[in-house]
C-alpha cells in the first residue's frame, strides 16, 4: 500500500513523509513563534515582533519545502538555479534594506539609544521618537521630523546626551585683576552649594584657570542629574554673576591702558 | 500639628502655616513655608486631612528613591561586632486628604534645604537625596519639623575592621514614627566588605506610644518590589 506509485517515482510513502515534514515544520514554526514572542515581548515593539516572527516562520517553511522536494525526489537544480538568480537580483535590489534591517536588530539588542533619548546622529540633534526595524526617527529641537536609516545610526558616530545619569557643564567667569580671586571662588562655590540639583558628588570645581588679557579667568565645573542639566545650566551663570556683583566683584570687560612716552600737552580754551 | 485634622482647618507656627477654608461650594488649601506659597482648590467631599512626616524624596522634585546620609566623621567598626548609633535625617511634611481609609496626597513640602548627589559612577551609579549627619551615641536634640532621628544598628559581618563614611537607603522602605516631641525611625546596615553593605528599615517605633506616619508610596499607590538596598559602590 505504502509503496504504491502515485506519480513517476513518487510512492504513497514519499508523499506521506513530505506531508509529515511540512506538518512538523508548521509545528516548529509555531513553537518558535511562541518562544520568540515570549522572550521579545517586552523588548521590541509589536510591529518589529511580528516581522521577526514572520521571518523565522518563512525560513522554517522554506527549509521544510526544500526537504519535502528532496524526499519526493524532485530535482531541485532548476528550482535552486531560479532561486539563486532571484536571490542575486533581490540581494542587489535590497542590499540597503537588509543592511538597515540587520542594523535595526543590533540597535534593538545593543540599545545604545532609547525612545525619548536626546541624541546627535550625523549632526542631527533631537529626541528619539521611534526606533523601527529599518529606520530611526528623530524630532529635532526645532520640531523637524528626521528619518535616519538604521545602518547610518549604527555605523556613524553617535552621541547620546542622556546615556549617563549625570552630566557636567562648564563656565568661564572673568573677574577684574583688582578683585580677590579667592573670595570670588568662595562665593561661586556657595552659589553652587545652594542649588539642590548642582550635585555634591562628583564634586563641583571653581579655580583660576588662566590670567587673560583683560580678566582673571575662573573655571567653574558643575555636575547635574541629566534630567536637570539644561535648566541648571540656564540659571547658574546669571546667579553667579549677580552674586559676585552683590559682593563687589565685577565681571571684567575688554579694556586697554595706554601709556604715553611724553606727557600730553593740554591747554584750556576760554570761550570768551 | 502632626496627626489627623478636620476640614476646615487653620494651623500656624513660626515656620509654616496651613489653611483649608471654604469659598462658596469649594474648599481652598493654602500653605506658606518660608518664601514658598502654595494654593489649591479641593473638589471633593473629604472631611479630614492627615499631616505627617514623609520620606524625603519629593522636594523640589521627585528625582530619586534613594537617601544618602554622609557621616560628618567616618567611623571604624570591628569585624563581627554590632553597634547602635544615632543619625539625623531630613524630613518632608505630607498633607493627605483622608476619607474612608483612602488617602490622596494634597501637598508635600520641606523646611530643609534639599541637595542631591551621585552614588557610584556616572554610567551605573544612582542619584540620591543627600544629607550630612554627625554620629551620636544617644538620640540627639533636633529641629522638630526639619529632621528626624534614625537609630542605626551597624553590623560588620566581614572578617576585617571596616571604615564607614556613609549609608544609603531605599527610602521607599522608610517606616517613620512620630510623637509630639520627635520623629524617628529604625534602620540597619550590614557591612559585608570594604565597599559592600546592605541596608533596610525596621517597622517599629523608637519609643513606646509613637504613631506610625502614613507612608507616601502607600498613599501614592506605588508598587514597591524591594525596600532593602545593597551598597556596592563604597561605604
Report on the structure:
- The complex is a heterodimer of chains A (272) and B (235).
- Chain A is an alpha+beta fold.
- Helix content of chain A is 46%, strand content 21%.
- Chain A contains seven helices and ten strands.
- Chain A has helices at residues 12-40, 46-71, 77-93, 95-110, 150-155, 181-194, 229-246; strands at 5-7, 10-11, 118-121, 124-131, 135-140, 145-149, 158-160, 166-175, 205-211, 216-225.
- In chain A, helix 1 runs antiparallel to helix 2, helix 3 crosses helix 4 (95-110) and helix 6 (181-194) packs across helix 7 (229-246).
- Chain B is 2% helix and 54% strand.
- Chain B has one helix at residues 216-219; strands at 3-6, 9-12, 16-23, 26-33, 36-42, 48-54, 66-77, 82-90, 92-99, 102-109, 116-119, 126-133, 147-156, 162-170, 177-178, 183-191, 197-202, 211-212, 229-231.
- Chain B starts with a strand and ends with a strand.
Over all CA atoms, what is the radius of gyration of chain A? 35 Å
Please tell me the overall pLDDT of chain B: 90
Task: Determine the N-to-C terminus distance of chain A.
Answer: 141 Å
Output mean pLDDT of chain A.
86
Q: Sheet with the most strands of chain A? A: 5 strands, antiparallel
Instruction: Tally the beta strands of chain A.
Output: 10
Features:
A: 272 residues, alpha+beta, Helix Hairpins, SH3 type barrels, Alpha-Beta Plaits, 7 helices, elongated, B: 235 residues, seven-stranded mixed β-sheet, four-stranded antiparallel β-sheet, 1 helix
Write the layout of secondary structure elements.
The complex is a heterodimer of chains A (272) and B (235).
Chain A: E1 5-7, E2 10-11, H1 12-40, H2 46-71, H3 77-93, H4 95-110, E3 118-121, E4 124-131, E5 135-140, E6 145-149, H5 150-155, E7 158-160, E8 166-175, H6 181-194, E9 205-211, E10 216-225, H7 229-246
Chain B: E1 3-6, E2 9-12, E3 16-23, E4 26-33, E5 36-42, E6 48-54, E7 66-77, E8 82-90, E9 92-99, E10 102-109, E11 116-119, E12 126-133, E13 147-156, E14 162-170, E15 177-178, E16 183-191, E17 197-202, E18 211-212, H1 216-219, E19 229-231
Parallel strand pairs in B: 7-12, 13-16
Antiparallel strand pairs in B: 1-6, 2-3, 3-4, 4-5, 6-9, 7-14, 8-13, 9-10, 11-12, 15-16, 15-18, 16-17, 17-19
Amino acid at each position: 500500500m505504502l509503496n504504491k506509485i502515485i506519480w513517476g517515482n513518487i510512492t504513497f510513502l514519499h508523499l506521506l513523509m513530505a506531508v509529515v515534514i511540512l506538518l512538523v515544520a508548521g509545528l516548529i514554526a509555531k513553537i518558535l513563534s511562541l518562544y520568540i514572542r515570549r522572550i521579545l515581548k517586552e523588548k521590541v515593539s509589536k510591529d518589529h515582533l511580528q516581522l521577526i516572527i514572520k521571518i523565522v516562520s518563512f525560513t522554517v517553511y522554506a527549509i521544510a519545502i526544500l526537504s519535502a522536494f528532496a524526499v519526493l525526489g524532485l530535482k531541485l537544480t532548476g528550482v535552486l538555479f531560479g532561486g539563486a538568480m532571484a536571490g542575486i537580483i533581490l540581494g542587489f535590489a535590497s542590499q540597503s534594506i537588509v543592511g538597515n534591517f540587520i542594523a535595526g536588530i543590533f540597535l534593538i539588542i545593543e540599545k545604545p539609544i532609547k525612545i525619548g533619548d536626546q541624541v546627535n546622529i550625523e549632526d542631527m540633534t533631537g529626541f528619539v521618537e521611534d526606533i523601527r526595524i529599518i529606520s530611526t526617527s528623530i524630532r529635532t529641537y526645532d520640531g523637524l521630523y528626521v528619518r535616519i536609516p538604521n545602518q547610518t545610526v549604527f555605523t556613524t558616530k553617535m552621541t547620546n546626551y542622556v546615556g549617563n545619569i549625570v552630566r557636567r557643564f562648564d563656565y568661564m567667569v572673568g573677574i577684574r585683576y583688582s578683585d580677590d580671586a579667592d573670595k570670588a571662588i568662595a562665593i561661586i562655590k556657595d552659589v553652587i552649594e545652594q542649588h539642590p540639583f548642582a550635585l555634591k558628588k562628583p564634586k563641583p570645581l571653581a579655580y583660576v584657570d588662566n590670567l587673560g588679557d583683560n580678566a582673571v579667568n575662573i573655571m567653574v565645573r558643575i555636575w547635574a542629574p541629566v534630567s536637570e542639566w539644561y535648566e541648571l545650566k540656564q540659571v547658574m551663570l546669571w546667579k553667579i554673576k549677580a552674586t559676585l556683583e552683590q559682593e563687589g566683584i565685577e565681571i571684567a570687560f575688554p579694556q586697554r591702558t595706554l601709556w604715553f612716552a611724553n606727557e600730553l600737552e593740554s591747554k584750556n580754551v576760554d570761550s570768551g | 500639628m502632626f496627626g489627623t485634622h478636620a476640614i476646615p482647618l487653620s494651623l500656624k507656627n513660626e515656620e509654616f502655616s496651613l489653611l483649608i477654608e471654604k469659598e462658596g461650594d469649594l474648599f481652598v488649601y493654602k500653605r506658606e513655608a518660608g518664601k514658598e506659597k502654595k494654593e489649591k482648590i479641593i473638589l471633593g467631599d473629604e472631611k479630614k486631612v492627615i499631616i505627617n512626616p514623609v520620606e524625603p524624596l519629593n522636594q523640589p522634585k521627585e528625582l530619586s528613591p534613594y537617601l544618602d546620609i554622609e557621616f560628618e566623621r567616618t567611623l571604624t567598626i570591628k569585624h563581627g561586632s554590632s553597634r547602635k548609633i544615632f543619625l539625623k535625617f531630613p524630613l518632608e511634611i505630607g498633607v493627605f486628604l483622608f476619607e474612608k481609609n483612602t488617602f490622596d496626597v494634597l501637598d508635600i513640602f520641606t523646611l530643609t534645604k534639599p541637595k542631591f548627589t551621585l552614588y557610584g559612577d556616572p554610567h551605573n551609579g544612582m542619584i540620591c537625596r543627600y544629607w550630612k549627619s554627625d554620629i551620636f551615641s544617644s538620640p540627639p536634640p533636633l529641629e522638630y519639623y526639619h529632621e528626624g532621628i534614625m537609630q542605626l544598628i551597624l553590623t560588620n559581618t566581614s572578617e576585617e575592621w571596616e571604615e564607614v563614611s556613609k549609608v544609603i537607603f531605599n527610602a521607599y522602605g522608610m517606616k517613620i514614627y512620630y510623637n509630639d516631641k520627635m520623629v524617628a525611625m529604625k534602620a540597619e546596615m550590614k557591612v559585608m566588605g570594604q565597599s559592600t553593605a546592605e541596608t533596610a528599615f525596621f517597622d517599629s517605633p523608637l519609643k513606646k506610644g509613637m504613631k506610625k506616619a502614613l507612608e507616601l508610596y502607600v498613599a501614592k499607590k506605588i508598587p514597591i518590589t524591594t525596600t532593602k538596598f545593597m551598597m556596592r559602590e563604597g561605604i
